[in-house]
Amino acid sequence: MRLPSPVSNLLVRLAPWLLPIAAVAAMVELVGGGWDINWHIARVPEVFWTPPHIVLYSGAGVVLLATAATFLLRWTGHAYPRPVRSGATIAFGGAVLQFVAGGFDSAWHAAFGADDSLSPPHVLLTSAMVITTLGIVLALHAWRDMEAATGVRRSSSWIAHAIGVTAIGWAAWGLLFILLYPGLFRTDVLIGPIGVRLFTAAAFAGLLPLIVLTSVRVVGVRGAATVSAATQAVGALLISGLMGVLDPIEVPFASLFVVPGILADVLYRPGTRGSTYVAMPLGAILAQFAFITGGVPDAMTRPFQLPAWMALAYLAGGVVAAVFADRIGTLADSLGTQPAEPAPAQM
Fold it and tell me: What is the span of the domain harbouring residue 48?
């Protein structure tokens, strides 16, 4: 079976760009997701078709189309290599689950009105986001290992890859929020049991080191962690702007959160002797940035009430993040070692 020539030619031309497009669209989707969380916290009157939901599902739609197109390539005679298809299959499955969750969420809103953070549609949606973003990052890793791209396409590919890594961190943040936030209808969201409070602090603090260390480990380009950290900072500013609460002083302050990316790029060298012993203490140090992050995790944990305990919790979160970053890199490497088929034609 062959697709009609116009469709086939279009897909072949788009083939080198499908995964980078999916990575950027996933980040747009996660900005919509972060906006939606703030929308819920602000108790804006809730229906399904809110501006945050439109941004979220528009990004998810582009991800769905881009990953679906990777399957159609096999009917053009220029299929992606099998390792790339494996990652793209994970991403596509996650994108499909997101739209299943969207339908579920719409029905839930119609039946119950405004819902709390921990609801079945939200758990399904955020879990699917983690699956989708992980699949995109794995597919891009395999694709970049096999494609000898140069010039603008090479640069845009690794930059999109770094943005995709940030999307993993944001998706994980969303899932943690859904599972751990005490409730959208509470005025005091401080977590009570000290053990759960410290666990929550560690989990959220580990996300920044997870992003920058994974970026170094998986993207493999000097500057990738800096791009990932900058994407995180810009995304946070954008959400504040969309909510109408952006203070101009936040803009220069946000540049501080690019520092972890720079440190990761300079200090972490995966594959070299002793790199694991660099990653773990580096993750522990970078996790201490949680003391100046503020926002929802601060409201849940109030770190300055227990600074010594919180510093230890952040340390633990950073070490675990370093381990997870290495495991994601190992998974990506193992996917890329499978036998490859001819890549899409370069046009």
Answer: 1-150
Largest CA distance in the chain: 65
pTM of the complete model: 0.90
Tens of pLDDT, residues 122-142: 899 899 999 999 999 999 999
Q: Which two tokens stand for residue 66?
A: 């881009």
237, 173, 167, 60 alpha-carbon torsion, rounded to 10°? -100
Structure-block tokens of residue 65: 């189309």
What is the C-alpha separation between 212 and 263, in angstroms, rounded?
9
Q: Is the pLDDT of residue 343 over 70?
A: no
- Report which residue type is found at 336: G
| Domain's final residue, options 150, 173, 200 | 150
Q: Answer whether 141's CB lies under 8 Å from 218's CB.
A: yes
Q: How confident is the model at residue 306 (pLDDT cuts 50, 70, 90)?
A: very high
> What contacts 23, CB < 8 A, 6 or more positions away?
136, 137, 140, 160, 161, 163, 164, 167
pLDDT tens, 261-291? 999 999 999 988 888 889 999 999 999 999 9
Q: Beta-carbon neighbour count of residue 110 at 10 Å? A: 10
What are the pLDDT digits (tens) for 80-102? Answer: 888 888 999 999 999 999 989 88
Contact between residue 135 and residue 197 where contact means Cβ atoms under 8 Å apart = no
Q: Which residue has the tokens 């694991």?
A: 276
Categorise residue 263: left if φ over 0, alpha if ψ from -120 to 50, beta otherwise: alpha
Residues 42 and 104 in one domain: yes
C-alpha dist (Å) from residue 209 to 92, 259, 265, 294: 27, 11, 12, 16
Per DSSP, the chain holds a count of helices (H) and strands (E) of: 13, 0
How many alpha carbons fall within 13 Å on the CB side of residue 126?
23
**Same domain as 276, residue 132:** no
Using the structure block, give the residue that is written with the tokens 């940035």.
289
Give me the torsion for CA of 283, 286, 290, 293, rounded to 10°. -140
CA distances from 213 to 3, 112, 152, 174 (A): 41, 41, 25, 19
